[in-house]
Amino acid sequence: MNFQVTVLKILVAYPDGFAVMEDLKRDMAILATSGRDWADRTKRLAAKVPGLDIFSQGLVERISGGWKITSKGREVLELMEAQPTALETPQAPPTEDTSATSPAPIPPLRQPADRAKRRRERRERRREARERARANAS
């Protein structure tokens, strides 16, 4: 997994592009354990911008306990996602149907509101389970 690309992708998903360190660490841990798809994707994106350094290039700023993506950081991320690599350039269409063998597209990062909703729902389910366990124990 490419750390710097992952930071850009996480920050762009947050409102105003700002996330506190706790949120960044949590999201990084989730993505780091999400499997090969994410690692392969970040490596492909990083290969499009050799020498990427999010801090010295002014793509991310450190602000009051967190990091914020800059407009330049958003532009670089868009550039990475828009440029086809030599492996991704369209070639002559194959004569046979390969749609069944093509890999599924990688879903975009979930928005913070989606994550917050899922957390609330999990908390509610756990609370209800505790209440049921207490009622059954009585």
UniProtKB/TrEMBL annotation:
This is Restriction system protein Mrr-like N-terminal domain-containing protein. Residues 126-138 have a biased composition (Basic and acidic residues). Residues 81-138 are annotated as: Disordered. Residues 116-125 have a biased composition (Basic residues).
